[in-house]
Amino acid sequence: MATRATVQLEELAAPAARGSLEPVAPRWQRDVLQRIPWSLRRWFDPHHYPRYRFVCEAAARVRAGEFVLDAGAGECPFKPLFAHARYLGVDSCVGDDEWDYSRLGLVSDLFHLGLRSGSVDNALCNDVLEHVPDPAGLIVALYEVLKPGGNLFLSAPQGWGQHQNPHDYFRFTSHALRMLFERAGFEVQYIRPLGGFFYYLANRIQMLPIMLFPPARRQWIEWVRLPFKLLATGVFGVAIPLMLMPLDRLDTDKNTTLTYACWCRKPSAPRPVE
Fold first, then answer.
1. What is the pTM of this model?
2. Domain annotation for the chain: domains and CATH numbers
């Protein structure tokens, strides 16, 4: 991976490799989650599946051969969806000590990417905005590197718990996001909640096994409680969400949500001065 301060996008953005899509999840869940097809996960995964569908929709809007900047890419879980494009994953690598950052194209502060202004066709920024001390500044930085008419696909949390400490600073309402986008100069295409109250409730209940079974100091304790941990995961992680998620249609306002998905465009021409 590159660590240069100033880079040419063409030098780093290679066609995205095809492979299994591995969403970001707690480490103890990942071996199980990555073996479950999305067609099944849609019924009990209120967090990862809606986000996956959002990025699929974003990938469908990207033309073949266009540049995609994944800002705050982490382990690049969505890289396979952009196999038709030229993908560049960038991250500062401070999110999680256990993550594998080897698929990144560039290690960099997102505020100082070193990319030419107006050189990027599409920017993807998934669940990153809450981790930077200056969200408005990051959105402006992404606006600057996008070409006129370029797309920003961004997701940001409203209802998550604190995570990736100490780099967790903000939560967002739809009104705050719209304000940030419009102040940066973007044209907002949509800001929509990825599920409502019952998705939120299902996800919070899925956290119970983590709370009930924190890591034990002795390995034998882990083995003794393993059957109970598996049972709790089946009940709280799958069965109850299966019952709750269909009820989400009752929440027509969806003012309580886990995440907002946003699509914005940089204007094709400068706005006239009023």
1. 0.84
2. 9-195+254-265 (3.40.50.150)
